[in-house]
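Hey L., structure's done. Input below.
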Amino acid sequence: MKKIKNKISFKLFYNDKFVMFFSILVAFISWIYVASTTQESSIFTVTDIPINLPELTDDMRYFNTDDIKAEVKISGNALVVTNVTKDDIFITAADVSFIDAPGDYTIDLVPRKSGVKTDYSFESSVSPSSINVFVDRYDEGRMIPITDKVAVNSVDPSCYASQTLLSRTTVKLSGAESVINSIAEVDAIYTFTETLSQTTVVKVPLVFYDGKGNEISSKYITADVTEVDATVPILDVKHVPIIPKINNIPEKLDFDNDLIKIEPSTIELAVPKNLNVTSVSTSAIDFSQLTKENNSFTVTLEIPSGCRNINSVETSEVSFDMSGMSEKTMTLTSSNFVIKNQGAEQNAVVSNKSLTVKVIGPTSRVNLLSPLSVTAVIDMSDKSTVTEGYVERPVTLEFKDPFAQCWLEGSYTVNVKLSPKQTAAGENPAA
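Output:
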């Protein structure tokens, strides 16, 4: 049988890369052997260890302690201590029994072993050895109004800065109860230093103050918003005329506007840039109430929506020049009454035998006016379905030429008797 000789080749040791790898491997094995057999302790620092504080009684809790980290030095076998991590060590308070009320406290820290690796010792105390904590009860949430403290220093002369609009009017605060209780005001504070000529929006941070005006730190409370959008509407300044609104002017009456005087006759408005405002109306004046004596009316101004009344003018005095007018009392009879818009099945008759009215108009016309030039119109439009009984109806006057410039002073009514319209013999009522 042929013998096979095992020959060890040393050619690999002439390869530089193999020699380097082999050297490192031998050194590592040697280090492990020495480290595991030596009795000398190594010191190692474990860092970034979270702090776990015990729970408190009476519904109190710690605030702003989540980001506090500590470190501690440990000693022991090199192979052991170098494999100890922050998860193997538990750092907590030495004692919290003295905490019995909300406030600031200093708590001493101690380390404890929490992992399966326990073959090591603590070489030093925890660093830091103590921490300062704030303790309080927790307020779930409270709504506090936001005070507008946005200031505008300069506005273009042709513009007007309207009231600042905040995107939020309240803020919800939660956190340390005593801190929230001390907050007297939440302000949105900002000052525009530039000259404004158009509507501008900025983000404004919220600031908390106590009852004495001292600023309160927000580190122990949480707000659902920390800033708000503040909009400063910039409006155009316009001078526009005031136009009186007059109702119940007779259809054929052409009342000369030169006889109407309004004071003040113009108003200064701040108008949104996208709104075309050319005048301002007054509240309505009932023309039928105009007499020789009652010829002046104080009326309120109807400011268009979105506009600001810069002058704060709320009313105007509207007066009518009645110096060329006269009044006349006339008695109308059944020949003057005309009923219009009767119902198809309705028979209407004015019950009044006569009606005394007062007419007003230019003196030259009123002096010549007689009942023959007047028609008293009774409109039955909204009573056309009533076929029996009595109804009271308003009277309007129609003046024949050349008395169209006259009008009825005040308001008058007549009584109208209603009965079903008689059907002729042989006529089909349905038809």
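The longest strand covers residues 130-155. The radius of gyration is 49 Å.

-- N.
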